[in-house]
Amino acid sequence: MRRIYLDHAATTPTRPEVVKAMLPYFTDAFGNPSSIYSYGQEARGAVEEARTEVAELIGARSEEIIFTSGGTEADNYALKGVAYANEHKGNHIITTSIEHHAVMEVCKFLERRGFRITRLPVDKYGLVAPDDVKKAITNKTILISVMHANNQVGTIEPVEEIGKIAREAGVYFHTDAVQTVGHIPVNVDELKVDLLAISAHKFYGPKGVGALYARKGTRLVSLMHGGEQEKRRRAGTEDVPAIVGLGKAVELAGKEMGKEAERLAYLRDKLIKGLVEKIDHIRLNGHPTRRLPNNVNVSVDFVEGESLLLNLDLEGVCASTGSACSSASLEPSHVLLALGLPAEQAHGSLRFTLGRENTEADVEQVLEVLPGIVARLRAMSPLLKTQK
Amino acid sequence: MSDLWSLYSEKVMEHFKNPRNVGEIENPDGVGRVGNPVCGDVMELYIKVNDGIIVDAKFKTFGCGAAIASSSMVTEMVKGNSIEEALKISNKAVAEALDGLPPVKMHCSVLAEDALKSAIEDYLEHQKLKKQT
Description:
The complex is a heterodimer of chains A (about 400) and B (about 130).
Chain A: E1 4-5, H1 16-22, H2 24-27, H3 38-58, E2 65-68, H4 71-85, E3 92-96, H5 101-112, E4 116-120, H6 130-136, E5 141-145, H7 159-169, E6 172-176, H8 188-191, E7 195-199, E8 210-214, H9 229-232, H10 240-278, E9 282-284, E10 295-300, H11 305-314, E11 317-318, H12 334-338, H13 343-347, E12 349-353, H14 360-379, H15 382-387
Parallel strand pairs in A: 1-11, 3-4, 3-5, 5-6, 6-7
Antiparallel strand pairs in A: 2-8, 7-8, 9-10, 10-12
Helix pairs in contact in A: 1-10, 3-10, 4-5, 6-7, 10-14, 11-14
Chain B: H1 4-7, H2 10-17, E1 30-36, E2 41-50, E3 53-62, H3 65-78, H4 83-87, H5 91-97, H6 106-132
Antiparallel strand pairs in B: 1-2, 2-3
């Protein structure tokens, strides 16, 4: 059976060009970038080249890029780093109710240690109101953290406007750009962000590597102490092959993402249109237009997400859900609840995230199999008749 | 988001793919409805009783793979049982009959046991009322 992978927001396959670029750094150019002999300097050169690639893609300077083990570490570093470096100035952090766990859980951690967290609500599309940010700022506010685009519903936040507000107030501004870098244009000056988190495996790079952009002059406390790597901001011998892979993925994305985003947006809209036409009692979650080009998130009434996923998997389609039943926590998605969805609709959510390998035929295949699956599950759902 | 696929036994997947006894019984002798859509599981179980023997059982379930498989299994197990025997079916027995459930899904078998108990209680309640009249 043909497998159709529609979970690119979870991770993407590493591109062969990326793997090829990485390979020499495991074996031939294996040196430690901190060593002064030629093996080390080869590796150092490759790391710095990757740094330049990343910086160029987001309009930053090379020295503002710190390589990390991924998006989660970058978010942790931004939040804890700024919080502990600026404690003397205040203890207030503003964030949203729809952040990724890598931000949300760090905020909870900081809250338990005496920081005060304001979690802003979102509207029914998942948008944060810049005005709410403005109103939430106090003289104790040291950091604002608002994600660039939401990983579940694909809504693109008004980061630029919030950046303006943060800058006027003199408050550091972080954005989790894990879902946008490599997919849509991201420029740190246009967005007016001081910190920005990047993850390689979301745009066809390897897992286990990412970067934090930290604007020159941003005061950060390090998470890792040890050697003097990354200008003493992140100790530990660099994962050279992974960093090279990140650099290559960035280079390829920079060249191709414009066209690819257009292609994906077309497929996305075709899928949304088809689902709404073919299935009753289904609704789009997230914003209709301010949306990642590859994200489709719908709620299917009267059925539960995990049973939808299992059935799709039996047809070769890999997707994801915000249902509690697919997570160990048994809590439905905090994002969907923040959008105001009743819990039963959050349980019936399905997310399809498109990527490079997907074609129109894949979209057609989903539209072919999903209506039958929904009909079968609804036939056994006790909710349908009670709603009639 | 999850790796439940690999956690489910073949038996669970088999019952999930081909659930037995889906539907409602017309004029049932007992109906049990348990769970809550807010929590992501609702189970409805219908029984038909003849001379103290459960001759038919059907279900309708809103829930995950484990909830559907547990519903299917409990309706299979209960058919042909006396009321006394049926009351002894535990959630563990349902889970074991499915060759086990992942720990986070054990509550689905509890729901199946509860649905069955609630359908039997409903039946016994009706019997009492009948005797009184």
